Amino acid sequence: MKLMTRKKGPIPPIIIIINILLQFSCGVFFKYLSFNIKFLVILGWFLIPVSLLMIFVCLFEFRKNKTTFVVFKNPVKLITYGLYSYSRNPMYLGMLMMLIAIALILSNIGSILFAFLFIPTMKHRIILHEEMILMDEFPLEYKMYKKNTRRWI
To answer: Of 4, 22, 81, 99, which has the fewest beta carbons less than 10 angstroms from its beta carbon?
Structure first.
């Protein structure tokens, strides 16, 4: 199964930065897509620290278990507890939540659409490759984990 034309895709921080730039561009160049709902702006500001907390909790778990969080590197251990018992990709879910929060703060429909483009981008450029690596490293354990835990939520 060929997933990409190159062996490795852009790393998640690069994907996030590009997405945020596109979101801000929508806010600047497509003002007619803007809306003014104060509750959603407040919700966006609430989601920022929640998303950062999710990301840092995941990074802490990787560090605690002495395994890598670097994309495309072979992990030493499969983490299946904590946030990882609810989602196979809670760190990416935290990143998605941050993009949604930024879009809500910008109050622009185009920005929201770009936030949701993160899902297929991550799936095809990163997640499917990581899943292949995990299946090679932990064949039985990962198969069971994949069966019992959803990719996103």
So the answer is: 81
